[in-house]
Design goal:
This protein is of the alpha/beta class. Helices cover about 40% and strands about 20% of the residues.
Length: about 350
Amino acid sequence: MKVTGYQLTQVSIPLSKPLITAIHRTETVGCVLLSIETDAGLTGEGYVFALNQQRLAAFTAMIDSLMPLIKGQNPLYVEKHWQAMWLDINPAGLKGVTVSAMSAIDTALWDIVGKRAGLPLYQLFGASRDEVKTYASSGLWLSASVDELIAEAHDFVAQGFRAVKLRLGKPDMREDVSRVKALRESLGDSVEILTDANQSLTPRTAINLARKIADYDITWLEEPVAANDFAGHRRVLEAIDIPLASGETEYTSFGMKDMLEQRTVDVLMPDLQRIGGLSEMRKTVAIAATYHTPISTHIFTEQSLSIAGSAANCISVEHVDWFAPLFNEKITVCEGLISMPQTPGLGFSFDWDYIDQHRL
């Protein structure tokens, strides 16, 4: 079997509500979709995204620059291709757009491997479970009023979620505390509340805030300080009683290993796009296990299920609904759990009718 060609498509996905955190604001999400074709009639799919659609051209160009390494080759030799791309991007940098392009290609290749084997990837990787815990992360933004937060959280519960993520980072810390308090009082004790400061705090402020919200049974505090401030992460982690989660902004298993070695997290959160695809995600899972550290995958819910279903130390997947319109298959949440897809490969395929209507 050989790779015979590929297709790249840029799309713009409108969000139902604006995404507003301490460092983000957007009403649409832009994606570059990759389809890799083979002479066996099998197609593998992957994608990358950007909140700033103008940057999609950079992702497209980088994928285009790497695909000559794959075209004409056997797509089943995934690790061989990953290493070839890794060596090729060295002069351009081992973080950023280069790694994101690799991620799309690597994930699409694994999709082909699963389809060729006739197995869902989570089983091909060695299954550990058939369903995984999830949490709602498509709302509870900083821009919402307290009443809006409560209504949205209850809507998530009605959809089947038993955990929700609340964004922190208000200029006045007291407002963050009051929002946490109001949400906990409304939801009761049966729904988990996770919090995310999106790198907006100093270590001292993060510690102060964490101590003020600790009584509200918070599952974790995510990215409290700048992502590259490992010393700050460790300072916060050692001073608070709430677990600290981070890792979505770091690149490849090498970056994950640095975070683990420096004891910066209680929960590691690798992001499929920044990690370097499913190949690097699997390596990261194994490294985290040697540090007795659980992982929770960051967005890319559909593709990350193959990792969640095969990694014993994966405690949850983040669920965002931004990318759901791209796929024919839809995720269902029941009692806070998502079931693994049972069709070969990733288990999700691009909906070209939708995509054709939203091409850039």
